[in-house]
User: Fold these one by one.
Assistant:
Number 1:
Amino acid sequence: MGTLVAATSLVSAAGYEAYHASAPSPTVTHHEKADGTTVIIPAASENPIPLHGRIDTVDYQQEYQGVTYKKQALVYLPATYVQGMPANIAYLTHGWMSSAEEMADEVSPAIDDLERSGEVSPTIVVFATYYPDRSFVNDDFETDYQLNRFFATSEINTLIDTVESRYSTYAGGDTTDESLKASRMHRAFGGFSMGGITTWDVFALNPDYFYGYMPMAGESWIGRDHDAPLPQIADEVTLGVRSRNMGQQDFRIIASVGSDDPALDDMNPQLDEFYRKYPTLMTPQSLQVWIDEGGTHSRPQFRASSATHCRCFSRASRRDRHQQAGLTPLGDIAYPKNRSFKAPTGVNASKRCQ
């Protein structure tokens, strides 16, 4: 899939590969003011973006192919965050050539607005890169997939241990396997473009610690190395939850893509097959697909999708906890009017977070 481009739309005149082309984004500075608020300052900007919450930098080390890399993730903390009180947490990653800094620049103001308005429960958002360092960025987007797979199956565990041993989540500072499984209802993973592809890998190969999945503008590349047909892709993508005897109530996938994004043509056949082959597992509730009218493969699209997905994840996790406890479910919240719900054949579409 593509990258987070600086323009509001992406025009491809030279075919699929040009669709992934990108120019580097400007450097971003996160400055904490005396009053505790954070200001995002893009290079050469005269209009800094104030945040009600704050952004921290978290350092960690990751070994990859025998080399240990020093890495950083950015952690958005809402103004309502209080150390010692648990918060939901979402991990986000980017597309080809992008970075954690670009994601935080684009997405955190939208998340901050939701937090400030009370539309979401207190949610920590972690912006992480799958590149060991910038030397891995090149002009062939397909080479990223090896890094996507590694991040989904290995590095994400390192990152969870680093972040959730420091901040107050529902794991309670305990990052053992048992604790992370018990708190998975409060944890989500998402990404845009190659980050969306990474998200499908997390769902397929590493679903123990996550309840919510937010693949944006990216299909699954599971089975790509052996040209798997669609029914086999459906088998491989769902194998992780099926082998763990998970049902449709044990996860929520909220997939989205713009109506004018070339990724729509890649995602549609897979999504239809998931519905067709596993109708009791991939239901309109457990697999929600939203198409943004007029949406493109762009940074603004990533921003809009991330904010709305975090809102739906927050509502879904609260509602399902109520249901599991035998309590009355919370009401749904309306989805933006420019989004349409893609339902399997014969299912009534609803413009609400399910």
Note: The first strand starts at residue 28 and ends at 32.
Number 2:
Amino acid sequence: MTAKDPNAFIDELWGYARALEMKEHPWFKGVREHRWTREQIARAEMQHYLRVRMNPVFFGYIVTNVVNERNYDLMPIVMENFMEELGGEKTHVDVMLQFLEEAGLTHEQADAAEAAPGTLAAIEMIVGCCQRRSALEGIAMLSFVEAMHGGPDGAAAGMFEAMTKHYGFSARAAATYELHAEQDTGHGDRQIEAIRRFARDEPTQDRVRAAVKLGLEAFNFEWDGHVQAMTGERSYWRGLAPRIDLATPAVRLRTSEDEGASLVAHEDERRSYERKRIPRD
């Protein structure tokens, strides 16, 4: 198998992303359709905070990896994303705390919240990918998630409107969604362009493909964690394409006829060995 054309490869990756279209997840769709209560949303945002507070950790791993790899072409993209996430007067963690403050929670109380199963899985998958894989794979893991999150038609924009206009949260409290709607399209576009530019050979495309899939599943688990915290149910969203096509080798189970033939062959081999071993007069 040879490497795909870069544009065809990006199209393939978008196919995986569309199967887990973010704005169709029950968390986002439920907020847009006004199905959740204000209290439920506050519980979900606690889970959101528990993942966001880990952003400095996994972005730190990506920065460390790109420096250790001496990947000077990728470095500007990594650093730009890093500064947007963690630079400036307020980080994304600070912005998340604005919502929790409006919900009557202190920083310490937010830190003491227990992570839902989906949240736990998401954090471990995201941090593990950024820690143990290349900088390009770390960027790829985030790329299509951020592309679906941002922009005027992305998941974040619809959230900001519903939070402020229907649920009555202040713009300050819902600022994280306004921020992501503005920034994540740029992040995602830059990261996808980096994939197009640097994933040109088959081994690199294989690693990037795996990282993209991991990121899509990890963040889908995060949104599952939001719903789990709101409902108290261990539920997981199946996505828009619930069947999973895994690349696996063909399974060839032995039949009874195969077993019989194998036993005969083994017995013939044993007798042949015995004849050779026993000395003749």
Note: The CA atoms of residues 195 and 203 lie 13 Å apart.
